[in-house]
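hey so u asked for the seq, here:
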Amino acid sequence: MHAQMKKYKYSTRIFTLILMTSALLACSDQIKTQAAQRLKETNETVTDVNVKGGKPVVYQVFTRLFGNTNTTNKPWGTIKENGVGKFSDITDTALKEIKELGVSHIWYTGVPHHDVITDYTKFGISQDDPDVVKGRAGSPYAVKDYYSVDPDLADNPANRLAEFEALIMRTHANDMRVIIDIVPNHVARNYHSLAKPDERADFGENDETSVEYARDNNFYYVVGQDFKVPKTTGHYQPLGGEFHDLADGKFFESPAKWTGNGSRKAQPDENDWY
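ran it, structure tokens below
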């Protein structure tokens, strides 16, 4: 355990820098100024070594579970049936009690906007296809937009980034630093950023898709073949077999991309990270 903690000492500053950079890109100038000032104050007031022995103590929070008091646990249950934790559930009271454990850094897991089955079309967010989303809540590592955060975690999905920024501020106010993990090559098949800077292209937007590999491409391709939804053997069905307009065994992607765990097939196996 002590050896593992040593690794965080050198990585937390990098994670914090990544966090603040990604969080600020999509903010208004006013929010950017406020956040930058708060970050400056935090760097002056939050000590790098504020635990006995000079070793950071990291407390991991799987954000969508932390504040969820619903005990239904229905297989394939909806967000209304099973509930979901929110950024706002991580209150000053909760943070104070975590701090009292001797914690110096909180690692909020599952924050970036990833594919989910909840319908957020009224907020301008496209629906995600159950045929290529595992589970209803989705995998936190099938990221749909690196410049935004999971709408499931917000009380008001339209205000989701500001709600996460408020959580960062609460954490800093309780004398702890923030870590989130961003895995740059783990994206949803339908990656599309709503919050990216205008000069940035989406992943794959400018790829040369007539070749399997090109230096400047974002993806590897199965040239000349369209993607096919994996065949299911019965132990797994999208949404447990529940009817959904998009759960039709089809997902358009041409040409097919290699699948995340290295599968080079246009139709990956149901156990692949497709």
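Strands lie at 58-62, 105-109, 112-114, 143-149, 177-179, 221-222, 256-257. Helices lie at 2-25, 29-45, 63-66, 79-82, 92-99, 160-173.
lmk if thats what u needed
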